[in-house]
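Input (structure):
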C-alpha cells in the first residue's frame, strides 16, 4: 500500500507538515488573495472616495436575536428589581403651596465640572393659529448652546443671526442666560420667566456666514410667563419598563454591565405647560400677544453630541387640551432603539408611552426628511393614531458643538390625532462629522470679582491700591471700586486709561464707627426711626447723623494709613473722592447718585472728604433709597480716591439703548467739562446714537446737539469745581469729534464683551485721551412688563374652547385679588375642590403644581366651568346640571354646546359612578353633624403659635406649620357645601316632579325655598345692622350721617344708646367685612370706621322692612308653593325642607368658621409685615400683600430688591387691574372687556332667583 509520505518522497511527519503548509501558501492562499484583493480594493476606494463619513447608513441598529424573548423577560425582571426608587425627599405634601427642597434643587442650575458635561433646558410651545416657538439653552464648561426658533402664523421664521451654529460664549455661566435669551425661575416647578431682548434674523440660513443682510436683522423683544399644567415627570419615570426591556433585549450582552445602558441617557424631567407673552419687533411696536402650549424639558449629564448617533423628537398639542412628546434615540455607547414619551390627557393626567411604531431605521435614515408620517402609540390605556404633515418652508437646520458634532433639522407640524386637529414640532438629530465653517467663539477672560483672601500680613487692609487683589472684593471696597479695579486690570492696549488711585475700605469705616461710640448711637437711632420702632422725624435724624460724621475727625489708625498712600502723590495732585457703598452698582441695584462724590480735592482735604462720603450714606434720600429696596440701612462704605481728570468733555455711554435694550444701538451723552453736568442733569447734553452691525461695524446713526448752556470744570484755583457758561458758537457744535465717538463706542463694545453684560460707562476726555471713571451694569433692561405683571399668576388655559367663569367667584372675591391671597387661599381652595371633583372620576388627576379648578386671570378669581360643573355629566342635561348652574351662576347656563364640551373631555358618567356618587353624598349628609363638631373644634383651636419676640423667619415658619390645620377648616366648609347642594338637588327634583322644562312657577318656588331659611349667620348680620341703625335714627341721625366716620364712631361708643348693640355686634362679627376673604382687608373689628360708613348709609336712607320670607315655617312654605301638581310632592318637601335648611345653616356656619381662620392668618401676616419692616427687609407693611407666599418666604431669608420692585409695580398698577371687567362666561384665554359691552343677566329680573351658595361660597 502506497502512503502519502511515499508518494511525496518524505519519511517523517515533520517533513510532511512542512510540505503541506508550503502547498497551502503557494497554491490555495495565492488563489484566495487574487480573488479577494480586487473586492477589498474596491471597498477601500469606495470608502475613501464615495462614501460620506457622515452617512447615517453607518449607524448600526441592534437586531432581535434568537434569544430575544428570553432576554426581554430577564430585562423586565431586572428593571423591576433594580430600578431606582423615588427619593424620600421628592415626596411632597398634597396641600403644599410652595416647592419643597427637592423641587427647588432640581430647578437650580447644575455645576459644570467636567469637559463633556452639560446642563440644559428646552421650551417648546405652539398654538392652533400656526405660531410656534422652540427655545433651548445648554450650559457647557466653556460655551453655551442656544436655540431660538420663532415661527409666526404668516409663515415668517426668526432665528439668531449666528444660526445654524448654536455655540455662544456667555458671561452668565451660573444661569440659563446667553445670546440675549434668559430663563429665570419664578416659582420652582410652577412658573418660569422667558425673556429675549436682542437681534434676530428674519429667514432661515442653512450655512453659517459672517456677513448678513442688515435689513433682515431685526431688534426683537419677547417676554413670556411659562406656567405648568401638569406634574413634572423625571426622565427615569418617563421610561416604560416594557419599551425599555424591549430595547435592552435587542442589544448585545457581552458583560454583566448591560443594565447600565439605561443610565447613559441624560437625567432630567419633562413638564407640560403654557406660555403667555408679547412679541415686539422694533422699539415702536406695541407687540402681539401669543398664548402657546407645549412642554419644558430639563436635561443634565453628558453632552448629546458625544455619543448620540440619531434621535427624533416629536411634540404635539391637540385642540382638546391634550399634549404629547415622543422620543426615540440611537446611541453609540448605549441603546440603539430607545423609545419613550409622555401624554398629557385633556383631563390633566400624565401617562407614559406604552407602545410606539417609532422606528429610527424607517424614519429619515438618510436625512431625507419625509413630508408625512403616521405615528401610532398608546398611553393610559388609549391608542393614538397621528397623521403628521411636516412643513418644509418653515424648517431650519442647527449644528451643535465645535467643531460641529450634531446636526438637527427642525420642522413645524400639522397633525390629526384621533380625528382632532393638532399642531406640533419635530427635531431630527444626526451624528455629524462633516465640515465646520463656523468660527470658534474666542475664549474670553471675563472680568469678575474674585474671592481672594483679603488679609494682608494677618489683618484686613484699611486702604488698598486699586491694582491690588483686595480691590476685587466687593464687601471690602464696594461695587464702584470693584469695577474700577477690574478696568484697571486691563492692559493699555484697550485704548483707554483709568486714573490711578486707591480705596479706603469698608473696614476703615467700621474702625471709625467703633472708635466713636456717638456715631454708633446715632446710626442705631436712625435705624429705629427708619423701621418704625421710634416715632421721630426721619429727615431731622438723618441730618443729625450726617452732621455727626462730618464733624468727627478721621481716627488716627485710618488717618495714618491714608497718609501713607497719599505720600505716593505730589502735593499739587488734585483728587476725586467718590463713595463706593457695599451693594451698590450691582446687576440688581444701581444706587447711582445716591451718595456723595467730591471733586477737586487737595491732599490735605482728602481725610475730610472721606468723612463727607461716609456721612452721605445717611442722607435722607440715600436712606430712603435703601429702605425702598429692603437693603441694609448701614451696609458699610468704602471710598475711592483717584487722581482728578481735568476733562475737556465727559459723559455717559450705554452699550445698549437704555430704554429699548436694542443691542445694535449705542447711546452716548456728552458735555463740555466734567461729567457731573451730565450725570446730575444740570444741562442738556449732546446725544449720539451709534449703530452696531452684526460684525460690530460702528457708524454714527443719529446726532442731537444739546443746549449745553452750562458746564462744570475744575476751578481755576485747583480746588473744587465751578460752573461756566459755554459760548453760543461752542454750544452749536458737538463736544466730541466723530472719531472720538466711534472710539468710545468701540471701547464700550469691548467692555460689554469682557463683563459679559451691557454696561453703563462714565468717561472723560483730555486732549483726545479717553479715561474711564465707572462701568456699572444697566439695570433697566430686565424690567418686568405690565403684561407680565398682570398675567404672572394666571391659571393655565389648555385649549382654545376652555370655559371659565367669574359668576360665583366674582361675588366671593370681587375685583382684583392680591397676590398673597391668590398664592395661599385660592390655591388651597383649588386643591380642596380638585380633590372632591377627582374623587369619582378616574380620568382626572390631582396636582398641586398648577390650578385647574379655581384660579385667577389678570388677578381676578375665576372658576373652571368645564372642570367643575361639567365634570360629571350624563348623556342628557340633567337636574344635577341645572342645580349646579343655579349654585354657580344663579341661572341656567348649561346648553348643548357646553354639555358636549364637557362630554368630550370627561366622557359620560357611568351608572356605577352615579350611584357611587349618590352613596357618598348620602354618607356625607349623615356624617355632617359629626364633621361639623370636629370642624368647629378646629376653628376654635386654630392659631399661629409663635413667641412674642419671634423673628420674621420664625413667624414665617409658624405660619407654614399652621396651614395643614387651615386646610382642615377648608375641608369642613367643602363638606358642608356639598351636603347643602345635595339636599337642594333632592328638594328641587321633588319640587319640579322631574319636569325637564322649568316653568316660571318653578323659578318662583325655588327662590322661595332657598330664601326661607332663617337660622343662618349671614341673615343675622343685616338684621342686627338694621336694629342698630334704627336706634341711631331715633337719636341724632343728622349729626351721625354728616360726621366723619372716626367722629361718628366716637359718638356711638360714648353717647349713643346703640353702643351696647354696636359692641356686641363687633364681638360677634368683628372678623367679618366686605371682601372678607381678602388677607389685605381690614375687618370691622380692625377698622370700625368701615362699619360706620355702612350704618351711615342705612340711617340716611329709608330703613328696609324685615323680609317676612325668613320667618316662614316649613308648613307655611310648602303651603304657598305654586308649582307642585301631585299630592305627594308637598309631603316629600315637608320632609326634605328641614334638612335643606339645616344644611344651609351648617354651610353658613362653616363659612363663618373659615372666615375666622382667614382672619387668624390675616393677623399673622400683618404681624409678619411689621417684623419685616423692623428688620429693614420691607419698606412698608402694605407691600407684603402684593407679594406671593413664595416671594415672601424668599424675602424672609434673603434681601431681594428685585422682588420689592415687582411688588411696588403691582401696587401702582392695582387700580387699573381692579377696574377690569369680564364676561360672565369666558371661552378660551380670558380677555377683559369694556363695562359698556358686558352683557350679563341681571339677577332678580325675569323670575331668575338669587344665586345658590356654591362650593366656595
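Output (sequence):
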Amino acid at each position: 500500500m502506497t502512503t502519502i509520505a511515499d508518494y511525496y518522497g518524505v519519511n517523517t511527519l515533520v517533513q510532511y507538515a512542512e510540505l503541506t503548509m508550503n502547498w497551502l501558501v503557494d497554491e490555495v492562499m495565492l488563489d484566495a488573495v487574487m480573488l479577494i484583493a480586487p473586492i477589498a480594493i474596491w471597498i477601500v476606494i469606495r470608502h475613501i472616495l464615495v462614501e460620506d463619513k457622515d452617512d447615517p447608513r453607518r449607524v448600526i441598529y441592534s437586531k432581535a436575536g434568537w434569544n430575544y424573548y428570553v432576554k426581554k423577560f430577564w430585562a423586565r425582571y431586572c428593571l423591576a428589581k433594580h430600578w431606582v426608587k423615588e427619593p424620600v425627599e421628592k415626596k411632597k405634601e398634597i396641600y403644599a403651596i410652595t416647592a419643597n427642597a427637592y423641587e427647588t434643587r432640581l430647578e437650580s442650575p447644575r455645576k459644570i465640572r467636567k469637559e463633556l458635561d452639560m446642563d440644559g433646558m428646552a421650551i417648546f410651545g405652539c398654538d392652533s393659529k400656526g405660531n410656534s416657538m422652540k427655545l433651548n439653552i445648554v450650559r457647557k464648561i466653556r460655551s453655551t448652546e442656544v436655540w431660538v426658533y420663532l415661527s409666526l402664523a404668516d409663515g415668517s421664521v426668526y432665528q439668531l443671526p449666528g444660526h445654524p451654529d448654536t455655540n455662544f460664549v456667555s458671561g452668565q455661566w451660573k444661569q440659563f442666560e446667553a445670546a440675549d435669551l434668559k430663563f429665570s425661575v419664578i416659582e420652582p416647578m410652577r412658573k418660569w420667566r422667558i425673556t429675549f431682548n436682542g437681534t434676530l434674523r428674519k429667514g432661515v440660513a442653512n450655512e453659517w456666514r459672517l456677513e448678513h443682510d442688515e435689513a433682515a436683522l431685526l431688534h426683537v423683544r419677547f417676554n413670556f410667563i411659562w406656567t405648568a399644567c401638569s406634574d413634572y415627570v423625571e426622565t427615569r419615570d418617563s421610561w416604560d419598563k416594557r419599551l425599555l426591556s424591549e430595547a435592552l433585549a435587542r442589544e448585545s450582552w457581552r458583560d454583566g454591565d448591560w443594565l447600565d445602558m439605561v443610565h447613559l441617557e441624560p437625567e432630567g424631567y419633562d413638564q407640560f405647560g403654557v406660555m403667555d407673552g408679547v412679541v415686539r419687533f422694533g422699539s415702536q411696536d406695541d407687540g402681539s400677544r401669543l398664548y402657546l402650549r407645549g412642554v419644558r424639558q430639563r436635561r443634565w449629564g453628558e453632552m448629546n453630541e458625544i455619543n448620540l448617533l440619531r434621535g427624533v423628537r416629536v411634540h404635539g398639542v391637540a385642540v382638546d387640551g391634550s399634549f404629547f412628546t415622543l422620543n426615540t434615540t440611537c446611541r453609540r455607547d448605549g441603546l440603539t432603539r430607545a423609545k419613550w414619551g409622555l401624554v398629557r390627557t385633556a383631563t390633566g393626567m400624565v401617562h407614559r408611552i406604552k407602545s410606539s411604531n417609532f422606528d429610527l431605521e424607517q424614519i429619515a435614515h438618510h436625512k431625507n426628511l419625509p413630508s408625512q408620517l403616521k405615528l401610532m402609540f398608546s398611553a393610559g390605556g388609549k391608542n393614538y393614531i397621528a397623521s403628521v404633515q411636516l412643513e418644509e418652508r418653515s424648517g431650519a437646520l442647527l449644528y451643535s458643538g465645535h467643531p460641529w458634532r450634531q446636526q438637527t433639522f427642525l420642522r413645524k407640524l400639522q397633525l390629526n390625532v384621533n380625528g382632532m386637529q393638532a399642531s406640533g414640532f419635530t427635531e431630527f438629530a444626526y451624528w455629524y462629522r462633516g465640515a465646520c465653517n463656523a468660527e470658534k467663539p474666542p475664549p474670553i477672560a471675563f472680568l469678575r470679582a474674585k474671592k481672594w483672601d483679603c488679609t494682608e500680613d494677618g489683618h484686613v487692609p484699611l486702604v488698598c491700591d486699586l491694582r491690588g487683589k483686595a480691590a476685587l472684593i466687593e464687601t471690602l471696597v464696594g461695587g464702584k471700586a470693584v469695577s474700577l479695579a477690574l478696568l484697571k486690570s486691563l492692559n493699555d492696549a484697550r485704548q483707554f486709561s483709568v486714573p490711578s488711585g486707591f480705596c479706603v475700605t469698608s473696614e476703615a469705616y467700621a474702625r471709625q464707627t467703633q472708635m466713636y461710640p456717638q456715631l454708633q448711637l446715632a446710626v442705631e437711632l436712625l435705624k429705629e426711626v427708619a423701621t418704625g420702632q421710634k416715632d421721630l422725624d426721619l429727615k431731622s435724624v438723618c441730618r443729625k447723623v450726617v452732621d455727626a460724621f462730618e464733624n468727627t475727625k478721621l481716627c488716627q489708625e485710618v488717618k495714618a494709613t491714608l497718609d501713607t498712600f497719599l505720600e505716593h502723590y505730589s502735593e499739587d495732585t488734585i483728587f476725586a473722592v467718590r463713595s463706593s457703598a457695599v451693594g451698590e452698582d450691582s446687576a440688581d441695584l444701581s444706587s447711582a447718585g445716591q451718595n456723595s462724590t467730591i471733586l477737586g480735592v487737595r491732599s490735605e482735604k482728602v481725610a475730610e472728604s472721606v468723612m463727607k462720603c461716609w456721612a452721605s450714606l445717611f442722607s435722607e434720600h440715600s436712606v430712603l433709597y435703601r429702605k425702598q429696596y429692603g437693603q441694609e440701612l448701614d451696609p458699610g462704605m468704602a471710598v475711592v480716591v483717584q487722581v482728578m481728570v481735568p476733562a475737556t468733555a465727559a459723559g455717559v455711554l450705554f452699550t445698549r439703548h437704555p430704554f429699548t435694550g436694542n443691542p445694535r444701538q449705542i447711546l452716548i451723552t456728552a458735555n463740555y467739562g466734567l461729567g457731573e453736568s451730565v450725570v446730575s442733569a444740570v444741562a442738556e447734553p449732546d446725544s449720539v446714537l451709534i449703530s452696531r452691525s452684526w460684525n460690530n461695524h460702528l457708524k454714527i446713526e443719529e446726532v442731537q446737539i444739546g443746549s449745553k448752556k452750562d458746564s462744570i470744570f475744575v476751578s481755576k484755583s485747583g480746588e473744587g469745581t465751578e460752573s461756566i457758561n459755554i459760548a453760543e458758537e461752542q454750544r452749536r457744535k458737538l463736544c466730541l469729534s466723530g472719531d472720538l465717538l466711534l472710539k468710545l463706542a468701540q471701547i464700550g463694545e469691548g467692555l460689554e464683551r469682557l463683563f459679559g453684560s451691557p454696561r453703563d460707562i462714565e468717561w472723560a476726555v483730555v486732549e483726545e485721551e479717553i479715561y474711564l471713571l465707572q462701568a456699572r451694569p444697566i439695570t433697566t433692561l430686565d424690567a418686568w412688563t405690565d403684561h407680565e405683571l398682570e398675567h404672572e399668576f394666571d391659571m393655565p388655559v389648555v385649549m382654545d374652547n376652555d370655559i371659565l367663569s367669574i359668576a360665583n367667584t366674582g361675588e366671593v372675591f370681587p375685583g382684583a385679588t392680591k397676590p398673597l391671597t391668590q398664592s395661599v387661599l385660592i390655591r388651597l381652595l383649588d386643591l380642596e375642590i380638585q380633590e372632591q371633583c377627582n374623587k369619582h372620576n378616574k380620568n382626572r388627576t390631582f396636582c398641586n403644581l398648577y390650578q385647574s379648578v379655581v384660579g385667577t386671570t389678570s388677578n381676578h378669581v375665576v372658576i373652571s366651568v368645564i372642570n367643575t360643573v361639567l365634570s360629571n355629566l350624563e348623556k342628557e342635561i340633567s337636574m344635577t346640571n341645572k342645580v349646579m348652574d343655579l349654585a354657580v351662576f344663579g341661572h341656567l347656563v348649561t346648553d348643548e354646546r357646553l354639555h358636549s364640551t364637557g362630554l368630550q373631555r370627561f366622557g359620560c358618567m357611568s351608572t356605577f359612578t352615579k350611584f357611587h356618587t349618590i352613596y357618598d353624598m348620602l354618607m356625607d349628609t349623615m356624617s355632617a353633624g359629626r364633621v361639623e363638631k370636629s370642624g368647629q373644634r378646629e376653628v376654635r383651636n386654630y392659631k399661629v403659635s409663635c413667641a412674642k419676640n419671634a423673628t420674621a423667619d420664625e413667624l414665617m415658619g409658624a405660619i407654614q406649620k399652621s396651614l395643614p390645620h387651615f386646610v382642615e377648616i377648608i375641608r369642613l366648609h367643602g363638606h358642608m357645601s356639598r351636603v347643602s347642594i345635595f339636599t337642594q338637588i333632592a328638594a328641587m327634583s321633588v319640587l319640579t316632579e322631574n319636569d325637564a322644562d322649568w316653568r316660571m312657577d318653578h323659578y318662583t318656588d325655588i327662590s322661595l325655598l332657598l330664601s326661607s331659611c332663617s337660622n343662618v349667620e349671614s341673615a343675622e348680620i343685616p338684621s342686627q345692622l338694621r336694629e342698630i341703625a334704627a336706634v341711631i335714627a331715633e337719636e341724632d341721625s343728622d349729626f351721625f350721617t354728616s360726621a366723619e366716620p372716626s367722629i361718628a364712631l366716637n359718638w356711638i361708643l360714648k353717647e349713643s344708646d346703640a353702643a351696647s348693640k354696636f359692641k356686641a355686634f363687633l364681638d360677634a362679627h368683628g372678623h367679618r367685612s366686605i371682601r372678607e376673604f381678602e388677607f389685605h382687608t381690614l375687618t370691622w373689628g380692625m377698622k370700625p370706621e368701615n362699619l360706620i360708613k355702612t350704618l351711615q348709609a342705612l340711617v340716611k336712607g329709608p330703613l328696609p322692612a324685615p323680609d317676612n320670607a325668613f320667618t316662614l315655617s316649613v308648613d307655611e312654605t310648602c303651603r304657598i308653593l305654586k308649582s307642585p301638581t301631585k299630592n305627594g310632592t308637598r309631603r316629600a318637601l315637608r320632609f326634605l325642607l328641614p334638612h335643606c335648611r339645616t344644611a344651609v345653616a351648617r354651610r353658613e356656619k362653616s363659612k363663618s368658621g373659615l372666615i375666622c381662620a382667614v382672619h387668624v392668618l390675616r393677623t399673622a401676616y400683618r404681624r409678619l409685615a411689621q417684623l419685616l419692616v423692623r428688620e429693614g427687609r420691607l419698606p412698608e407693611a402694605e407691600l407684603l400683600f402684593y407679594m406671593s407666599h413664595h416671594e415672601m418666604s424668599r424675602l424672609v431669608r434673603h434681601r431681594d430688591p428685585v422682588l420689592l420692585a415687582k411688588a411696588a409695580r403691582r401696587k401702582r398698577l392695582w387700580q387699573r387691574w381692579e377696574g377690569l371687567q369680564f364676561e360672565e362666561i369666558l371661552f378660551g384665554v380670558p380677555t377683559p372687556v369694556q363695562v359698556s359691552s358686558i352683557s350679563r343677566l341681571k339677577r332678580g329680573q325675569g323670575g331668575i332667583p338669587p344665586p345658590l351658595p356654591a362650593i366656595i361660597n
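Notes: The CA atoms of residues 451 and 790 lie 40 Å apart. The chain has 34 helices and 37 strands.
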